[in-house]
Amino acid sequence: MSTPPDPADAWPFTEPPDDDVVTLDRIVRGESPILLAARDDDGWQFLDGEHVFEEDGEVVLFGEILQFDPSLAELADLPIGWHARRPTVDSPWQRAEGEPEP
User: Fold this and answer.
1) What is this structure's pTM?
2) How far apart are CA 64 and CA 79, in angstroms?
3) Which residues of 61-72 are buried (b: 16+ CB within 10 A; e: fewer)?
4) Cα(61)–Cα(13) distance, rounded to whole angstroms?
5) Which residues have a Cβ under 8 Å from the Cβ of 88 and sit 6 or more positions away?
6) 22, 57 contact by CB (below 8 A)
7) What residues does each domain of the chain span?
8) Neighbouring-strand partners of residue 61
9) Is 59 exposed, middle or buried (0-12, 13-18, 19+ CB in 10 A)?
10) CB 34, CB 21: distance < 8 Å
11) Which segments in the chain show pLDDT lower than 50?
């Protein structure tokens, strides 16, 4: 398994670190890991793969989410309209075109 890039290295994403991204309050609180990342025309979502209610949503800065999970840098080249999943934080990301299935 490769070592995730150091977030202190050059910023890997095309979007700047002060862009907003969508995540979940349970991820921000450290109660759930990021196991699903999706990129669409509106930006990035970093989720835990569980059912999501609108009130669960949280907006944070891109730079903050990368500090929380540096392995997300591996997804910097994920095309718009694609998503990536992993079953555990120690598993490799699996990429797929289209929106993630619930």
Assistant:
1) 0.87
2) 21
3) ebbebbebbebb
4) 13
5) 33, 35
6) yes
7) 20-88
8) 20
9) exposed
10) no
11) 1-2
